[in-house]
Specification:
4-stranded antiparallel beta sheet, 2 helices, 177 residues, alpha+beta
Length: 177
Amino acid sequence: MSKSGNKFGAPRNKNGVMELPFVLWIFFIGLAFPLIDLMTVGLRLTFLYTATHTACLRACRGQTFLTPVEGKPSCTMLANQAVQDVTNKFTGIHVAQITTQILTTNIDNSSQSRTVSPLTKPADVSKNTYQIEVVLACSADPFLPLPLPVKIAGLSAPLQVTLSDRQYCESPDGLTI
């Protein structure tokens, strides 16, 4: 083995220390920061789904769909309040629109219809099932937006998503109000 080489006889790279900053820069800027941003967006999407699911669970327990009766909030009011409760706890999540609707499914032929207004006829649970569906148009911000020349959702711009959840209505008789 030569004095200036390794055991294979190749000369040693005396400038190896000079390459380290470039390798570290590529690692952090090219790999680590984008992955941190994507993980943060994924976590924020989980918070948004939690808001959607919580809103739907609360809304399906409402006694009426649109109008509060006897001091009890309606399904739409419960859904809106639940979304506010969850989104106020976290940063980087934004809800642009909340849609609460009734999903009616015919038991015989499985046909479905949606409406954002109360039912026109009383609920008939022998022919239909009734679900409350909450749909959120929302966005999740990246933790550290990267200054890229193009906008990439989740890395340099917010990720826009639409989330929905549905649950069976506990008081179908109140869906006409």
